[in-house]
Amino acid sequence: MKIYDISMLIHDDMPVYNNIEDKKTKIQNVANYSNASHYESRIYMDIHCGTHFDAPLHMLENGESIEKFDLSKGITICKVFDLSNVEDSIKRQDIEQLDIKEGDFILFKTKNSLTETFEANFIFVEKNAAEFLMNKGVKGVGIDGLGIERSQPEHETHKLLLGSGIEVLEGLRLKDIKQGRYTLVALPLKIKGTEGAPARAVLLEYDEEIVN
Question: Helix %, strand %, coil % for the chain, to 5?
């Protein structure tokens, strides 16, 4: 069975949102074989760095935190759509002809996957596309940017999706993934009371027996 790792590598120089210094990851070695009988490290990391899930609390004042995540939504059939031709943002007209059905977990592959650095003008999901996905009744939306939206001061995309119980998965690496149907395995760390959590995300060649 073919397994595709679609997670970002975590390291000190990994890209962070808006290149904000305080968001940068720091991995510190606190013991090694030159001074101890074991090897041990500590990590400082913003929850929204790397591949991660957003919980409703991220944008909704009374939203649920990440430990309430429905595990069945993270082990599921998904559809990858290649939108590498899209400029600036994903709009309703870019996706309304796609094979998107109720209960689908949708992953958008865009130009974001072509760079390993943070680009301020990354491709994002516009409000009207989020409304379309909400009305379709999808279970989740993933994208290959560190955010699912930008340039929307009221955070309409986040609020529409998270407010409808749709999972939001950000920071995917989809450069080598072809458009198609897969089994997604992506689960957030079980952190109490937070608005999101890092995740390890992989795609498996589609096998109906895995998800039934």
Answer: 20, 30, 50
Q: What stretch of H or E contains 188?
A: strand 180-188
Q: Which amino acid is at 23?
A: K
Place of tokens 């559809």: 79
Checking DSSP bridges between strand 105-109 and strand 167-170, what pairing results, if any?
A: unpaired
Q: How far from 34 is each of 27, 31, 37, 38, 42, CA to CA, in Å?
A: 18, 8, 8, 9, 17
HEC states along 81-127? Answer: EECCCCCCEECHHHHCCCCCCCCCEEEEECHHHHCCCCCCCCCEECH
pTM score of the predicted model: 0.94
Query: Computed from CA positions of residues 193, 199, 157, 167, in that sequence, does the dihedral angle turn out positive or negative?
Result: negative
Torsion of CA 124, 174, 195, 70, to 10 degrees: 120
DSSP label at residue 187: E
Low-confidence ranges of the chain (pLDDT < 70): 207-212
- Quote the pLDDT of residue 206: 73
Parse the chain into domains and list their residue ranges.
3-10+47-211
Report pLDDT for 200.
Answer: 99
CATH code linked to domain 3-10+47-211: 3.50.30.50
Return d(Cα 127, Cα 37) in angstroms, integer: 54
